[in-house]
Write a structure and sequence with these properties.
- By secondary structure, the protein is α/β, with parallel strands linked by helices.
- The protein has one domain: Ribonuclease Z/Hydroxyacylglutathione hydrolase-like (Metallo-beta-lactamase, Chain A, 4-Layer Sandwich), CATH 3.60.15.
- Helix content is about 20%, strand content about 30%.
- It has 6 helices and 14 strands.
- It has helices at about 35-45, 65-70, 85, 90, 165-175, 195-200; strands at about 1-10, 15-20, 25-30, 45-50, 75-80, 105-110, 115, 120-125, 135-140, 140-145, 150, 155, 185, 190-195.
- The strands form 3 sheets. It has a 6-stranded mixed β-sheet with strand order 1-2-3-4-5-6, covered by helices on one side. The protein has a 6-stranded mixed β-sheet with strand order 7-8-9-10-13-14. A two-stranded antiparallel sheet has the order 11-12.
- It is globular and about 45 Å long.
Length: about 210
């Protein structure tokens, strides 16, 4: 599977692009200042067919207008439990950054289980804890896990909708049960593997 990571926004979000041989692609978590993402799409002659969101925090969604300005027919997919974050700057946190960001059209729900968008087949995992509607996406041996788990750490749970027990349960039941060599591509920082995190992540001891 072909994927590209581009670091975007003030909080250095990992925006991922998965492409298919036919030129279609999926864009994950576009943060603000997504000009480099658009440049990459144009350079590689890729056509985004959907924006997939791991959750609704501002740093993972504020690049949506940059994508839609160039590709107007692209839909946005997010779990229903985070749906209202897109249209509420207080809930998505953008108001704390002096912004009033909201998007309320072209949105489709994500549900847990097998999924297909165009030629892309993958699995959606509902992983609440960082937010109520957090999701991870598994493509073959790669899992795009958002802010659920990082290399050596886990997502924060002190924001509205966060729950530390629920987060650890999600990681234990949905992430650590993936094959050990599964590559984890988090929302910030470098990638890791299920095996590595199960062995050395101090937050996951005893799970």
């Amino acid at each position: 599977m072909d994927y590209k990571k581009i670091v975007t926004g003030q909080l250095e979000v990992n925006t991922y692009i998965i492409s298919h041989i036919n030129g279609d692609c999926l864009v994950f978590d576009p943060s603000d200042s997504c000009g480099d993402v658009v440049k990459y799409l144009k350079k590689e002659k890729l056509r985004p067919i959907s924006i997939l969101l791991t959750h609704g925090h501002f740093d993972h969604i504020m690049g949506i207008p940059d994508i839609l300005a160039e590709y107007k027919e692209v839909n946005i997919r997010i779990h229903d439990d985070d749906r209202d974050m897109l249209s509420d700057s207080n809930r998505n946190g953008s108001v704390l950054m002096g912004a009033d960001f909201a998007v309320d059209s072209g949105i489709e729900p994500l549900t847990e289980g097998a999924a297909r968008i165009g030629e892309f087949e993958f699995t959606v995992l509902h992983v609440p804890g960082h937010t109520r509607g957090g999701c991870a996406f598994v493509f073959d041996n790669v899992c795009f896990c958002g802010d659920t788990v990082f290399a050596g750490s886990v997502g924060r749970t002190d924001l509205p909708g966060g729950d530390s027990r629920q987060l650890l349960a999600s990681i234990r039941e949905k992430i650590l049960t993936l094959p050990p060599r599964t590559i984890l591509c988090p929302g910030h920082g470098g990638r890791t593997t299920v095996e590595r995190e199960s062995l050395i992540n101090p937050f996951l001891r005893g799970l």
